[in-house]
Amino acid sequence: AICGHGCKYGECMGPNKCKCFPGFTGKTCNQDLNECGLKPRPCEHRCMNTHGSYKCYCLNGYMLMPDGTCASSRTCAMVNCQYGCEEVKGEVQCLCPSGGLQLGHNGRTCIDIDECSTGKAVCSYNRRCVNTFGSYYCKCQLGYELKYVSGHYDCVDVNECVTNTHSCNLHAECLNTEGSFKCKCKQGYRGNGFDCT
């Protein structure tokens, strides 16, 4: 089976037919599936969509059970957690629905961990980190675009001279470089390539 456009988060099952891994959708399995919008709803109370998955959490006063349901808990109601809680050895602990969130100083509300600035994020050399609430994703560096090349997705240099997205002067030549471009004034003109006289 050959899939010309590839299957980003899935496998090729027939001519241009992808079978997506759980949590992903689209013709090339390149889109995150928002499980929180599915019917029946996967969580009893509240749902947080994550990349390729989802997390359940409960309203205040309820405790998250292993099957995603929420059980009423007098102790949880007393602690007043933002995203529900769990009881461990008789002690009540507030929960955060994602590993990219951490309990704040009050022990009840969840604050975002900026994986990009703390160095927890792992992005390949030509990708940059973009922080989101509770997570992060890797985006192509400026001057690069995501393309399907020889069996996998990669960040490929954008040729600004061909796509006409350069800012060279009318009397200058555009020279493509890796991730960027340069401008050089044509013969008979003088300047930095952006201004030629």
Automatic annotation (TrEMBL):
Signal peptide: none annotated. It is found in: Secreted, Extracellular space, Extracellular matrix. Residues 32-71, 112-150, 157-195 form the EGF-like domain. The keyword Membrane does not apply. SUPFAM superfamilies: EGF/Laminin. GO terms for biological process: cell adhesion; cell differentiation. InterPro entries: EGF, EGF-like_Ca-bd_dom, EGF-type_Asp/Asn_hydroxyl_site, EGF_Ca-bd_CS, Nephronectin_domain, NOTCH1_EGF-like. Belongs to the nephronectin family. This is EGFL6 protein. It comes from Balaeniceps rex.
